[in-house]
Amino acid sequence: MRPDAAVGPAHTRGGPFAFRLFVTIGWLVVIGAAFAAGYLLADYDADHAMARIQILQNERDGLSEALAGERDAHIRLERSHLIDREAKRAAQAQLADLQAERLRLAKQVTYLRGLMREGAAGVVEVKEFMLTQSGDDGVFDYQFIVTQLIPEFGRSEGTAVVKLSVRRGEEVETLPLSALPGSSSGRHDIDFDHFQSLSGTIRVPSGLEPLQVIVDIQPGNDNLINSSDSFAWRAGGGNDLMLSPPDETLPRRP
Fold it and tell me: Which residue, 14, 43, 177, 197, could crosslink 183 as a Cys pair with Cβ 3.0–4.6 Å?
């Protein structure tokens, strides 16, 4: 047998095997490259996603800080407005007190002029008119103090008449307490040297809006002149209401 005859068949058998081995290795290389590429891409995407998350977290922190700043600014603004309202309320209350004092002094000057003109010796004025709401709706107990404007005047005698100025629909009218069912008569005898406390009851019927309480002083002798004090009705706030003089308080002339 020739030597090349033996080698020929072996070479023929090894050729297909080597080819398959080469193909297998090629596929393994391709698969490995694909896995490596996928790993690299996944790592890149992860880094990119983490960077994006970090950016979003920074933006969130910035927005949270901005929101906290806006809230603080809003709270400071509300506090500033509250302080302004309180200051305005205090100024209005002080202005109302000053106006009431100015009216009181103007009224006293008018009274004194009346005394000088008429040759009388004294005038009675009303102070501290207070209302206390009772258990029934529309029913108020009142109390006020009458004093003598002129020091060392002596004994003051006369009658104090309490009236109520009300709005009925579009009309304003002044009613004696005797015209209000459930109210006291509103007439009080006064007889004092320094001061006297008087009290009674006012019942406001439904359909009437109280505006002012008016107290007329009718002298019991020629040593006094007629006088009148009016107090603006202030509803709400509590059970006790200290009524204050309205914008105009004028003396009554006989």
Answer: 177
Per-residue pLDDT at 1? 46
Domain holding 68, by residue range, is 1-119
Residue 248 lies in a domain: no
Helix (H) or strand (E) holding 135: none
The per-residue pLDDT for range 78-99, each reduced to its tens digit, is: 888 788 778 777 776 666 666 6
Same structural domain, 204 and 143: yes
| Average pLDDT of the residues in 154-169 | 91
Q: Final residue of a domain: which of 119, 146, 162?
A: 119
**Two tokens at 210?**
């109280």
Query: Is residue 94 located within the same domain as residue 38?
Result: yes
Residue 247 lies in a domain: no
238 within some domain:
yes
Amino acid symbol at 133: Q
Both tokens of residue 14? 């090894």
Query: What percentage of the chain exceeds 90 in pLDDT?
Result: 21
Total domain count, the chain: 2
Kindly state whether residues 167 and 185 are assigned to the same domain: yes
Mean pLDDT of 210-220: 91
Residue burial 231-248, b: 16+ Cβ < 10 Å; e: rest: bbbeeeeeeebebebbee
Q: Report DSSP letters for 89-121, one per residue.
A: HHHHHHHHHHHHHHHHHHHHHHHHHHHHHHT--
Largest CA distance in the chain: 175
Q: Over 70: is that where the pLDDT of 242 sits?
A: no
pTM: 0.53
End-of-domain residue from the set 119, 142, 164: 119
Burial 141-166 (b: 16+ CB within 10 A, else e): ebebebebbbeebeebebebbbbbbb
**What is the rounded distance in angstroms from the CA atom of residue 164 to the CA atom of residue 137?**
17
